[in-house]
Amino acid sequence: MVYKNFKQLIDTNISKASAKTVAVVCAEDDHSVGAAMEAGREGIIRPLLIAGEEKIKPLLETYGDYCDYELLPVSNQEEAVQTMVEVVNSGKADAIMKGLIQTADFMKAVVSKENNLRTGQLISHMVVIELPTYHKLLCVTDPAMMTYPDVDQKKQIILNAVDMLTRIGFDTPKVAALAAVDFINPKMPESVDAGLLKEMYERGEIPGCILEGPISYDLAVHKESAEIKGYDSPVAGDADILLAPNITVGNVLIKSLAFSAQGIPASIVTGAKVPIVLTSRASSQMEKFHSLVLAASLKGDH
Amino acid sequence: MVYKNFKQLIDTNISKASAKTVAVVCAEDDHSVGAAMEAGREGIIRPLLIAGEEKIKPLLETYGDYCDYELLPVSNQEEAVQTMVEVVNSGKADAIMKGLIQTADFMKAVVSKENNLRTGQLISHMVVIELPTYHKLLCVTDPAMMTYPDVDQKKQIILNAVDMLTRIGFDTPKVAALAAVDFINPKMPESVDAGLLKEMYERGEIPGCILEGPISYDLAVHKESAEIKGYDSPVAGDADILLAPNITVGNVLIKSLAFSAQGIPASIVTGAKVPIVLTSRASSQMEKFHSLVLAASLKGDH
Fold first, then answer.
1. In Å, how far from its chain's centre is CA A141?
2. Does residue A32 contact residue A105 with C-beta atoms inside 8 Å?
3. If you ran DSSP here, which 8-state letter would residue A18 be given?
4. Beta-carbon count within 10 A of B162 CB
5. What confidence score (pLDDT) does residue B301 get?
6. Which of A141, A223, A256 to mutate against chain B (most B CBs within 10 Å)?
7. Which of A287, B18, B204, B276 is close enough to B269 for a disulfide, judged by CB 3.0 to 4.6 Å?
């Protein structure tokens, strides 16, 4: 399956009747509650709001009649986090979304061994972006969480993204390990790592995908450029996943795609038992909505 | 002066009567001769073709009547390079363009002390890009030449770009030292360098510009994002120059802008006595043309 855009992803993967339940942890700010209730109204998700009753009250006055929701009242942040752990481990929540809680506190609860939300996989961040200039949804990872991953961590970041896209319905995602050059240059560590990943892939250590690297951005997404340069690869011009060599490349890339290439981004944290929506206050309503779409599009268990 | 696009740059800076002379070194391939003669026909430049007579003959059959040009015949590459050195040092050529000669050989001649083409400045590469989603021409540096510059080299890369833009007519260019974050994080070297550059700027060591850093891509080019995040700076949303922390960030960025954001790039090598057009075989005709426009737009001596 190839998804041209988010609409197609919604039409294919989401039905109101079997909408996924997303727990909003500390659902006490307009931005997270608004996004969750809006997605609820569209039939994308069922909001499960974990919040202090007094704190969420004014928000429910605004959004309460958007959709059916469930409220799990808590008296403080600690209880909210504990409730999140329970609803994930009991299978009641299919995904979680960060509300009015510091990212560090929230992620600490996610990664804490005793909360049993981990799967043994590394936790990484991926952005899926709809671009007017590309023929399908494009994933960039990791632009936010793993800062300067080593080769093994890069492998795990790729596996996380491949797992996610496969569960969304992509057939054998094509992975481009990005560099500034299309050959291994010992003086350019990003190209060396990309070459090592290609070797690992050829040895069967990165299954479920087709991987190419080192490969430059233009060859990964633009078939004509690859043809001019004589770069022959099934990934050339048709990449599904762009592996950024580090957070700076990933961050600049997703922002250039979102702000200069008019892309619509959705972002998700992967590798825990359930997908995590971790948008920031500065994220647009559209980004929050599509991040929930992404979380709700996943099929099957982890 | 703010240039919305290349057309405005041409209209403002270039007149057929005083067109700059661009020496094409080893003008023996269709791509460089075609680009130079096309720019000649448009009155952007006067081509000064340095080439083997036999080798350029078939090309002149195609392009010979495009415009007035001068041919300096040479018998081999060594002579071509020597002729380039002479026409630059005598002031006959205002800019040079690489033809059918390996980039390494070409640049070796440029940087060689005995050829006297250097100015004492570092040699760096900059791309100026016209974007449908930005209100003016945007410069990214250095996406190709200085691979992993240290802070002092970054300072020189900035000074080269500021010098170029100022000679094109920009008023006090606004420089964004890019990072993945908008604050100094000791664990993120790009942000540390950007912070150091800001300090150097505040001490007056990087004159002729307004510099901000560390700053993320969205805040540099998108005013609303900066407002949402409370990031107050004259550079926010209005950057003229984006300093990429290294070649990989720069390369991925310019390619995402060119191939996904439908930008029109022009590239130039700066820091030598004259601007250098160093496009590759894979560069589009449009890129070659606009690179010549950039070289031809420079006012005043170095």
1. 8
2. no
3. G
4. 25
5. 55
6. A256
7. B276
**Contact call for residues B165 and B158 (beta carbons, < 8 A):** no
How confident is the model at residue B280, as a pLDDT?
A: 78
Residue B11 makes CB contacts below 8 A (sequence gap 6+) with none
Taking CA–CA distances from B133, the nearest residue in chain A reads A260
Q: Cβ of A222 under 8 Å from any chain B Cβ?
A: yes
Alpha-carbon distance B125 to nearest alpha carbon in chain A (angstroms): 14
A111 touches chain B (CB under 8 A): no
**Chain B neighbors of A260, CB-CB under 8 A:** 131, 133-134, 221, 256-257, 261, 263
Chain B CB contacts of A131 below 8 Å: 260
Residue spans of chain B under pLDDT 50: 302
**Does the beta-carbon distance from A251 to B221 stay under 8 Å?**
no
Whole-angstrom CA distances from B72 to B35, B53, B85, B144, B289 are 18, 9, 13, 30, 22
Are B168 and B160 contacting, i.e. CB atoms less than 8 angstroms apart?
no
- Restricting to A residues 240-269, those with a Cβ less than 8 Å away from any Cβ of B are 244-253, 255-263
What residue type is B10 in one-letter code? I
The pTM (predicted TM-score) of the whole model is: 0.95
The pLDDT tens digits for A193-231 are 999 999 999 999 999 999 999 999 999 999 999 998 899
Of B143, B188, B252, nearest to A147 by CB-CB distance is B188
Q: Give me A203's structure tokens.
A: 């040895």
Q: What is the distance, to the nearest Å, from the Cα of residue B175 to the centroid of all Cα atoms in its chain?
A: 15
Determine whether the interchain pair B225/A263 forms a contact, defined as Cβ–Cβ distance below 8 Å.
no
B269 φ/ψ sector (left φ>0, alpha ψ -120 to 50, else beta)? beta
State the virtual CA torsion across B102, B106, B111, B114 in degrees, nearest 10.
120
CA B207/CA B188 separation, integer angstroms: 26
Q: How far apart are CA B276 and CA B25, in angstroms?
A: 11
Nearest 10 degrees: CA dihedral of A228, A233, A238, A242? -110
Q: What is the Cα–Cα distance from A180 to A188, expressed in whole angstroms?
A: 8
Q: In this predicted model, which residue has the larger pLDDT, A122 or A16? A: A122
Structure tokens at B234: 């004259």
Q: What is the tens place of the pLDDT at every residue in A153-190?
A: 999 999 999 999 999 999 999 999 999 999 999 999 99
Cα three-residue angle A159-A233-B265, rounded to 5 degrees: 95
Shortest Cα distance from A228 to chain B (angstroms)? 6
